[in-house]
Amino acid sequence: MQIAERMQGVTGSAIRELFKLLGDPAIISFGGGNPAKECFPKEEIRNIADELLRDKADILLQYGATEGYLPLRKAYIEKILPDLGLSAELDNVLALTGSMQGLDLICKAVINPGDVILVEEPSFLGALQTFRVAQAKLVPVPLHTDGIHVDELEAIVEEYRPVMFYTIPTFQNPTSWISGIEARKAIARLAAEYDMLVIEDDPYAALRFGGEKLPTIKSFDTSDNVILLSSFSKTISPGLRVALCCGNKELIRKLTIAKQGSDTHSPNLNQAIIAEYLNRDLLPSHIKEISAVYANSAKIMTDSMEKYFPEWVHYEKPIGGLFIWCTLPDGWDAAELFKRAVERKVAFVTGAPFFVTPGKGNNTFRLNFSAEPEARIRQGIQTIGELLHEMNAERK
Ligand SMILES: Cc1ncc(COP(=O)(O)O)c(C=O)c1O
């Protein structure tokens, strides 16, 4: 059987592989990017779904428009975009089956094999995989604890003339780091100067529990070269698979055509649930509630890290998002730590797959703090801490 060239050398996501382990309830997992199941607005969604199926079943159970369920697109324009400093017309927005689909459609519409895509290093595994399947050449832009450094980005853009730059400016995956306002302005400027498409992937910005809210890159976009991906996976439910994007009308049209050949349209019922959720103004208070939950989980995790981790493990305390990024001293192998941790029923994700540069990031790993209850966070961090001490003693 032939396998297409585009699939060669593309391995499954390390996290997807990890999901297989999660079938074992004894495993304490800091691996995925899952919201806490206690944070799903189950009652509201059940009520909304009941009402929708009572009142609108004939529309919602039928085929729908590829562009998306109209009330959802309108609710996005009216309830979400203004808070991000944005206004849009209907033709600027497309509903997506998760923002992952947005990445895939953008590649289908924009990327030819060999085209250069700039990615933050480290970056989100799902995006890296999608870009690789599109046969793009991935060029890393170093990410720092204070986000993208404009001088570095500008030099790389000048050298490589990329078709696209993929960035997660707020509470980045895997680091939770933030690019500041100057970087955001500069990214929008470079998009205009070099006619470079910028994908601003923004699933975590709402999950803020410290610091000041920052304007989107899209809000500085004078050339219409920035496309914003907005997902409800982390704020409402990832299982509903509802996201939207906002961008250039011509590009949105091309993405819509690509979507026709992908899944025809996103499930109507799921889109309608999110539309109703937004129109009933349930989201702001829900976000407030879950941000407080995540602030608490993050604190329990960092308190435990302070207590149990050796002082030479480097990490920043997060003020939003779902992750803590850890760096061990040079020469350490996070894969060995992972192997031992899984034997002791604790899982996380090793950092190397988030890097594009071969051999980089072997001493890094990512912890997710949102998916486990307090006692298991403490227990899991204690186990990792013990393993770090144990491995350090062996090195001497
Ligand atoms: C940066 C980033 N983008 C996109 C996604 C996927 O979002 P969705 O569930 O909307 O496809 C994730 C999920 O982990 C993510 O971390």
Q: Kindly state the number of beta strands.
A: 13
Task: Report strand %.
Answer: 5-15%
Listed once per kind, the bound small molecules are: pyridoxal-5'-phosphate
SSE succession: HEHHHEHEHEEHEHEEEHHHEHEEEH
Largest sheet features = 8 strands, mixed
Structural category: alpha/beta
Alpha-carbon Rg, integer:
21 Å
Q: Name the CATH superfamily assignment of the largest domain.
A: Type I PLP-dependent aspartate aminotransferase-like (Major domain)
Segments where pLDDT lies below 50 for 5+ residues? none
Strands side by side in the biggest sheet: 2-9-8-7-6-3-4-5
How many structural domains in the coordinates? 2
CATH level 1 name of the largest domain = Alpha Beta
CATH architecture of the largest domain: 3-Layer(aba) Sandwich
Individual helix count: 13
Averaging pLDDT over every residue, what do you get? 96
Specify the helix fraction band.
40-55%
Task: Please describe the topology of this protein.
Layout: H1 14-21, E1 28-29, H2 42-55, H3 57-60, H4 70-80, E2 93-96, H5 99-110, E3 116-121, H6 125-133, E4 137-144, E5 147-148, H7 150-160, E6 164-167, H8 181-193, E7 197-201, E8 226-231, E9 243-246, H9 249-260, H10 268-279, H11 283-308, E10 323-327, H12 334-343, E11 346-347, E12 349-350, E13 364-368, H13 374-395
Parallel strand pairs: 1-11, 3-4, 3-6, 6-7, 7-8
Antiparallel strand pairs: 2-9, 4-5, 8-9, 10-13, 12-13
Bound molecules: pyridoxal-5'-phosphate.
